[in-house]
Write a structure and sequence with these properties.
The protein has 174 residues and is of the alpha/beta class. The longest helix is centred in the middle third of the chain and has 21 residues, at 76-96. The termini are far apart. It has helices at residues 49-61, 65-72, 76-96, 145-148, 153-159, 165-173; strands spanning 21-23, 31-32, 44-47, 99-102, 107-109, 111-116, 122-126, 142-144. A hairpin with a 5-residue loop joins strand 6 (111-116) and strand 7. Helix 1 crosses helix 2, helix 1 (49-61) crosses helix 3 (76-96) and helix 2 (65-72) crosses helix 3. The chain has 2 domains: 20-107, no CATH class; 110-160, Single Sheet (Rubrerythrin, domain 2), CATH 2.20.28. The chain has 6 helices and 8 strands, in the order βββαααβββββααα. The strands form 3 sheets. It has a 3-stranded mixed beta sheet. A 3-stranded antiparallel beta sheet has the order 7-6-8. Strands 1-5 form a two-stranded parallel ribbon.
């Protein structure tokens, strides 16, 4: 009697890398909480920047899932999963009184917002543009909102890429 053993390669299934999602501009605010309760006493919920963008496009601007997925350069099914996650997290904020923070995600910004810390003036720029002083008060005390999320040069080079189905489709629309 012979016993045959088969050697099988044991591997770990690795998920596919996430597609980088395009976000129009960084959010003005990155934290929300109920009034009158210290943040340290609240459950924390993290909304990623791509979930924020999905929520902004679908529920604030009113785009269809297809239009919003084109804007973010992702598939419609991926967009649907993002918006469902975002809505659940935002509902938790409202119903349970959670502390909501917006941060993280595999994203690149298309545009940036610069805020003058002296006069409060805010202005939108292309992601790669650099400003030395405020156009209103000429202060050099400026806050780069995209930079606050760790983005800058990476978004500039990403916006100039030519690849991907959605990027090619967008270029052919013009």
């Amino acid at each position: 009697m012979f016993i045959i053993f088969r050697m099988e390669k044991i591997g770990i299934d690795m998920p596919r890398p996430e597609t980088e999602r395009m976000v129009h501009t960084p959010p003005f605010f990155s934290e929300f909480k109920p009034v009158g309760i210290a943040g340290k006493f609240l459950n924390k919920t993290k909304l990623t920047l791509d979930e924020y963008e999905a929520f902004r496009l679908a529920d604030y601007i009113g785009l269809s899932h297809y239009e919003a997925s084109e804007e973010m350069e992702i598939s419609r099914s991926t967009f649907t999963r993002l918006i469902e996650k975002a809505r659940k997290k935002i509902a938790g904020l409202l119903v349970q009184g959670n502390l909501l923070t917006i941060d993280g995600g595999n994203i690149h910004f298309k545009n940036n917002i610069i805020r003058c810390l002296d006069c409060g003036h805010m202005f939108k720029t292309k992601i790669g543009a650099s400003f030395k002083k405020c156009p209103e008060c000429e202060s050099k005390n400026l806050l780069n909102l995209a930079g606050g999320f760790g983005h800058g040069k990476c978004c500039t080079s990403n916006n100039q890429r030519q690849g991907g189905y959605h990027a090619r489709k967008r270029q052919n629309r013009t």
